[in-house]
């Protein structure tokens, strides 16, 4: 019997307060942006004022001669290209600019005002070029190419198709879709949807402090992905990755914004050039203009169904605006197959996802990524299917949600009955729904129930656990605490339960790429799962060493020992025992340091051969499901939508810390409310983002928030340690869908766009707003790249 298998999962389950909560609430926590000190230089970045143009002249000589200026760097100092899937992204614009805000140069000076003066003194001439601002522009016949040399870029991941302004295409095709749509008993339902961008609006902007000493870079940065920053920075600077060390202070909000390299190389280059420590912090305006927003997208989806409610076939095209560079959008094209193809049992499907280049700021990952708008599109489409065949929407969902043995869009076979019992749980939570459509105050009432499928992004993680002589343990990982509590609470619970100590006796080391093994980063609901599995394995190795030493000390068999509450004892009511501190001290004397290491990576859940192309993840190791129910009131005069009640049944596998999960669900729902009702990034005709700060970007405020009623659904299959699943990402998944379906039910008109601002809703009620017309994805569904070899 292994030491790990003897861990009682229930020993890890407890409601715990965040250990970092008091310092954060009282302002004692020092984030990266707080790390200013004597002798540091202040950095600033010169950014392009045009969306598209050819750089004719860039002269830094006058700026370099100014008092207080220590270093200026440009594209000549950073020759490498980076990217995900495609290496298309230079650190600084080289020869051409591709979006407003693209970096042209960076300076380091004694004072912020010296850096600002240097930026103003840089002489720059840019010849304007035609710009493609929208995806329709980019896909038009004869459109200007954002990357005329796209064919020459290094392809870092094989399988996707590319052409012109289509940066990447991923497809998932299963079964005979054409035959499904040709059946004489098929009812064809078709819809188009459009969503805008969403800004992460993390309170702490992207920030970095860089040092260059003894031929190595040390980067302190606010990031979710220290190893990505290490490797990408090394690539763009043209140095070995071993010459870059990344450490991560507390992070003041991420949500996916900090899931890639950002401003770190600027500071690193300036530190090397100046020989001084350099601090660079984005202004709020820079964050708004260059934030890796949740992308705007357009979705065309149609289904063939029978009058009895069987889904014969489905096909969809999703266009994702990746902005000027492919970045994370290349990877995120993968998600479409698992979100549009993950809720329901479908006979045959053809799903196409394309990342489109435009002359706008690059987009990136944001909590539940494209799942949020794909779920909106799919659930609204599902309601319209039910209406077309005369079936109750909830009954249609009960009939068709995925169950044990059903196939997803990539041919993955799902395990267990999860969604159907979750719908039943919601029925109990909701009670008998009201049949009223108008409230006593004259407002229109609407309610809707939606389902959603997401997943835990597994990937490689590593952990080391060191046992200290005083009976405490130190956990060393590359994990980063971004607000979920996983690093500060979840992982200590797992280690503590394995070693028989208190969670507060587990010290969690700050992420440091010199001290911890490789990790793909914190996000995708993976922290407690992937890092938790690695930590469990590492703690299990330590547990085994302690038990063997204790067995010698107690003259007992290791399998007859128990380890709990700070003691190791011989099983039995009166068995002799020792404190863990005594055993740890003895073990160090006999064996030296008592440490264990553990690792975890994707389990490789099978998909159907030949179904998926261009996908970074063909199948989901750990699918996660959600059922949401929403009640709204709509003012018929103003179009204002008020949330009346919100309920969530969430698949959590096993809830290690229910208190923490409830907090994540409440926060995720509120963030989703902003996406559904208020948050609107507007791109001007020149390619500039019009919202430049908190004053012009509307997010939910305290009066907008409604308490969320939550039921945690436990017991669904999971490969996670102790049966857990990630719980922080999925709460936002269904919110846009639930609100949109409820509003549609309230006003009696279909909803095809988000956000549902009062003017938008009022226009819908007045019949002045219809479904988006998307001629650039009209015609045959299989036209364009999907048909090309």
Automatic annotation (TrEMBL):
UniProt keyword terms in alphabetical order: Molybdenum, Oxidoreductase
Protein name: Xanthine dehydrogenase family protein molybdopterin-binding subunit
Superkingdom of this protein's organism: Bacteria
Transmembrane segments: none
Listed InterPro entries: Ald_Oxase/Xan_DH_a/b, Ald_Oxase/Xan_DH_a/b_sf, Ald_Oxase/xanthine_DH-like, AldOxase/xan_DH_MoCoBD1, AldOxase/xan_DH_MoCoBD2, AldOxase/xan_DH_Mopterin-bd_sf
UniProt-listed Pfam families: Ald_Xan_dh_C, MoCoBD_1, MoCoBD_2
Residue ranges of domain Aldehyde oxidase/xanthine dehydrogenase a/b hammerhead in the record: 26-130
